[in-house]
Amino acid sequence: MSDGESLMADDAHGEGGGLSFHPMDQFEVKSLFGGDIGMFTLTNVTLWLALAVVAVFALMVLTTSKRAVVPGRGQSIAELMYGFVYKMVEDVTGKDGIKYFPYIMTLFMFILCANFLGLIPTSFTTTSHIAVTAVLGFGVFFAVTILGFVKNGAGFLSLFWVSSAPLPLRPILALIEIISYFVRPVSHSIRLAGNMMAGHAVLKVFAGFAQVAAIAPVAIIGVMAIYGLEVLVSAIQAYVFTILTCVYLKDALHPHH
After folding, report:
1. Sign of CA dihedral 139, 94, 98, 61
2. CA torsion sign, 224 to 229 to 234 to 235?
3. What is the tens place of the pLDDT at every residue in 154-188?
4. Between 188 and which of 137, 153, 256, 257 could a Cys-Cys bridge form, CB atoms 3.0 to 4.6 Å apart?
């Protein structure tokens, strides 16, 4: 191994032989202006959350403010997203769920933009933090639960009573249904945060290995492959979160088994 390769290899390893790069450092919450982090401190999380909101506004409002018969690229993307989510809501929840389309559309676009912004080098992936995804997940949970009782009253509880099952099994199934219902917001939020965190951590690991000259070509190819996969995962996770929201909304509107 040449002297240059030795130096690069030394850079990629610590004094104790461990890796000098830390894949989880990218998820650390930091103050934008230094100092301790308090309740009202501006951090990298709040910055990239705000940028996600700006991105949604720019894509869905600014690009469609001067609607043309022959749409430009921005308007075409906005109309494609609108039609995609509208069809999803209509197919899953039925006509009754269309009135809740604005809320679901907002969720989808926010998560999609936050995921894609996290793919920009040196950016921060807000949806990798359970604190962010839990707010989204529990927001959906409380919204559909309240809606279920408002629309159906005590009849909403029929969601947990499987009337098609044999009578002796119904209490057991009801208990299972209740547990699974209250697990929904946890799985809803952890699924999104876990997938985003895992993918970005793997991407950072491959980028770290690219420091070692002997395996740099393989590592760079790995980075390209993982990055392409992360683009796909970012879109899929926004879709999964949204379609699960539609399923939960359907249960609130039509709780009877």
Report:
1. positive
2. positive
3. 888 888 888 888 888 889 999 999 999 999 999 99
4. 137
